[in-house]
Amino acid sequence: VKAHPGDVPVFWACGVTGIEAVINCKAPLAFTHSPGCMFITDLEVEDNASGNDKDLPEVYCISQDPLHYSIASTAAVKKIRCLENIIAVDPGNRGVKHLFSQDELLKACLSLSHAKSVLITTGFPTHFNYEPPEENDGPPGAIAMAALLKAMEKNVVIVTDQRALDLNRKIIKEAVEQEILQTPVPVISYQSNSPDSAVQFLCEDGNPEKPRFNHLIAIERAGMAADGNYYNARKVNIKHLVDPIDELFIAAQTLPEITTTGIGDGGNELGMGKVKEATKKHIKNGDVIACDVEADFAVVAGVANWGGYAVACGLYILNTCEIHDRYVRKAIGYPRFSKYKNWASALPSVAKEENMLKILQRHCVRSGVTASLAMEVDGLPFFDIHSNLIERLREETLK
Questions:
Q1: Which of 145, 288, 155 is nearest to 225 (CA)?
Q2: Is residue 47 part of a domain?
Q3: Phi/psi at 272 (5° precision)
Q4: What is the pLDDT of residues 229-257, one digit of tens each?
Q5: What total number of domains does the chain contain?
Q6: Are 334 and 171 within 8 A, CB to CB?
């Protein structure tokens, strides 16, 4: 090959030989693959030769600081958007559709897919006149996410109120016995003893460069309002029942290596500060109860548990997407086809969620709207409202 002035050398090579070619040509500027690194352009590919959405990549920004992008096939993106639409219904006519923003679920799942360690919090003590005061929306969704994350070999920890530690540990133990979870999940509490308690809790030796968790998820967790109190939907202050786990999400805003997701159905849940203006405008008592603490991603659902189920399903969709899988692996190793069956077995199912609700019944954890111990969540019967929605999520995920 004879070189001419102005020529641009292009090497079609594997990740190993490509870097050697670039080093030897001593070009002032070059782009190449290298072991563990991939170059992906943000130029759109309009001519999809295969005509298959599974072969067409889409790029999404999932963090501004540090700048972090991820990719998935058009097919995977469409499926996750379908999940988002399935859970965005408003069976209680509370106005939650006004809190919805497209692709919050997608971006939350993309970020979680890259995480190695995840901290989940739940617990909304709305029934302050009962013992326990918790409602049964939240724990099932938290456990559904934990099951899938652990199947993907990520470290998972649940943090909750000190007064509810024993209850939640019993629930986890029974979830393992019922095979809703394959292995136990540690349940811990957070206590605020000093201004740097949150950073000390989240990072090894309080070092922001060594986070213990890459991602925090709050699902149906009581969220602090602008006045520093915590309110249920009826505008009752339940601050005396809530530990300041919000501090972890506030601290995470200053820690570049930690991303946060809030999952809720009323705007008064931790993380829903991202949609607080919409909550104040469209949700009953929103001007008082709106959570003031925001998460990077706000996943809104008609029932918060549904958001947890959708996150689990979204993670399965992404990690069985060959484009996303290759990116997460940094093109090292082989596709993880052998793991698909195990991941699928960890997905939420009607049978698992029925058993989960029965566990909560045995511990007198009540429905949020009615305080009933019947087979219902947020006043909606498990059969056929919740069961049908779970089936729809599974059908979309596994097709």
A1: 288
A2: no
A3: -75, 5
A4: 999 999 999 999 999 999 999 999 999 99
A5: 1
A6: no
Q: 28: burial class by Cβ within 10 Å (0-12, 13-18, 19+)? A: exposed
Flag whether 10 is in a domain.
no
pLDDT digit string, tens, across residues 187-226: 999 999 999 999 999 999 999 999 999 999 999 999 999 9
In a domain, 373, yes or no: yes
End-to-end CA distance of the chain: 50
- With beta carbons less than 8 A apart as the criterion, state whether 370 and 376 touch: yes
| Domain coverage including residue 147 | 57-398
Q: Is residue 41 part of a domain?
A: no
Instruction: Give the CATH number, domain containing residue 304.
Output: 3.90.1640.20
3-state secondary structure of 206: helix
Q: Which pair of tokens denotes residue 339?
A: 């793991």
Q: Is 1 helix (H, G, I), strand (E, B) or coil?
A: coil
Strands 215-221 and 187-189: unpaired
0.85 surpassed by pTM: yes
Both structure tokens of 26? 């001593």
Residue 76 in 3-state DSSP? helix
Beta-carbon contacts of 335 under 8 Å, excluding residues fewer than 6 positions away, are 322, 325, 326
Q: What are the structure tokens assigned to 224, written together? A: 């602090």
